[in-house]
Amino acid sequence: MKRMIMLPMAAAVMLLLSGCLYPQDELESKQTPYEDQMETVQKAVDTYQQQTDGLLPIKTRDQETDPYIKYPIEFSKIVPSLTEKIPSNAYEQGGIYQYVLMDVEEDPTVKLVDLRVAERIRELILRKTVNGVLPFKDPVQEGANVYEVDFQKMGLKEPLTVESPYSDAHLPLVVGGDGNFYIDYAIDLARIVERDKPDVKPGEDIRYLLADNYPILPAYSLPYTVNGQNEVVFLKSSN
Questions:
Q1: Which of 15, 18, 66, 128 has CA atoms 20 to 30 A from the CA of 97?
Q2: What is the pTM of this model?
């Protein structure tokens, strides 16, 4: 998985470094998940699938790739033949989003991955490589093999966070027992469980509560479930 996520991460770095070159209105167009742009791409994907007897305009990735970044759209297969241009907020155009497909077997659906998340993780990977230490701190949850990140060991005075695409929360980062870094979406999932009271059961991965109801996917995360008290917890068998 490490090898497969480096390309979108590298793209994110270039986008962030070049962001100051754009006027404010153009910069905003590259950072907003416009519904009409997603609908245009969705129509092009549907048409491509019809014309190719079920094939999809996606890049090939390893089977072990994070499921939320596993099927990136290959725009060269649909632009300009099926849609006029690549959306302005796509990373191919200097935007912050990678366009991907979910539910490719049953109902291929266009979704977005925020590459600023990838940049945060990349920063920690680089620091871990330079420092040569595994930054494990206290366990986040007993038996889950997920830990707080020791940011002091990483040479940072303050913990890194990412802005949530679902709320005004700042989401923490955690480190798994495998040494990889992940975004902790528990805050947003708990809000949905408490507010909407969905029919969720212990043992099922409930990240679909975010993936199904928002344009942006909970990429670079570990599976979550609920416990007997309906509290959001890491799925223990996931890591």
A1: 128
A2: 0.85
Tell me which long-range contacts 23-27 makes (C-beta under 8 A, separation of at least 24): 26/88
Distance CA 237, CA 239 (A): 6
- Of residues 32, 49, 10, the one with CA closest to residue 88: 32
Question: In this structure, is the dihedral angle defined by the CA atoms of residues 157, 130, 68 and 77, taken in order, positive or negative?
Answer: positive
List Cβ neighbours of 97 (8 Å cut-off, separation of 6 or more).
Answer: 33, 87, 89, 90, 91, 112, 113, 114, 115, 216
Q: Is 169 exposed, middle or buried (0-12, 13-18, 19+ CB in 10 A)?
A: middle
CA count, 13 A, side-chain hemisphere, 73: 30
Task: Give the pLDDT confidence of 160-169 residue by residue, as tens digits.
Answer: 999 999 999 9
List, in sequence order, every residue forming a beta bridge with 4; answer none if it has no partner.
none
The DSSP H or E segment spanning 141 is: none
Helices (H), 155-235: 186-196, 208-211
